Amino acid sequence: MAAPAVPDSWRPILEPVLTTPPARRLGGILTAEEAAGKRIYPPRGDRLRALELTPLESVKAVILGQDPYHGPGQAHGLAFSVPQGIKVPPSLLNIYKELESDLGIARPGHGNLEGWARQGVLLLNNALTVEEARAGSHQQLGWEPITDAVVAAVAARDDPIVFMLWGSHARNKAARIPGLAQSHHLILTAPHPSPLSAHSGFFGCRHFSQANEFLVAQGRAPIDWQI
Question: For residue 54, what is the DSSP state?
């Protein structure tokens, strides 16, 4: 959690947050848990991967997740994404189904979304770490002020940006950003793509085509959602 590890474009935003007592306490907790033999995902070098692949000035869209996958080898720092060679998780499979229905893009055989991130899709989780086999274990541990600052910095940009908010957790996080709903950005909401809720309105939401229509109308290049 040392400040030099923060990607350059995000450093002015995050350095003030990372020097606060809660952030320092977070770093201490993570160090202590790892020293005690707990498995923490993603690996230390991947925890700011979303910010590394998507500089602040490049953001076109934001997809908010809750916390990283908690199984071995799954989490690599991007919300909903898994590395090549790892089985596609159910929520991501449902994202692929909606992508196919919306844009006719065939479902890929892998779950690596780095291609989206490199085009300006910020795949940000609310908490950037999790203990193995304990979903949500690092919520309220101290990540929220850090990721709130990231979302607020994106919302403050003059460039029009698409916020794709899936599920109540993502909507609640965005609601903490003053004025976001009345801004020049596009706010798209739908139920979470998990198997428990995808049939309640995620399927058929057409967020991918709507995002590109908005970006083109605002004079910005669309996102190639092909994976």
Answer: S
Q: Give tens-digit pLDDT for 121-171.
A: 999 999 999 999 999 999 999 999 999 999 999 999 999 999 999 999 999
Q: Which DSSP string corresponds to 105-164?
A: PPPPSS---HHHHHTTEEEEESSS-EETTBTTTTTTSS-HHHHHHHHHHHHT-SS--EEE
Please identify which of the residues 67, 158, 159, 224 carries the catalytic annotation: 67
Q: Is 158 assigned a catalytic role? A: no
Contact 86, 147 (CB under 8 A): no
Look at residue 4 in the predicted model and tell me its pLDDT. Answer: 41
DSSP, collapsed to helix, strand or coil, labels residue 17 as helix
CA–CA distance, 140 with 31 (Å, rounded to integer): 17
Q: What residue has token string 């706010």? A: 187
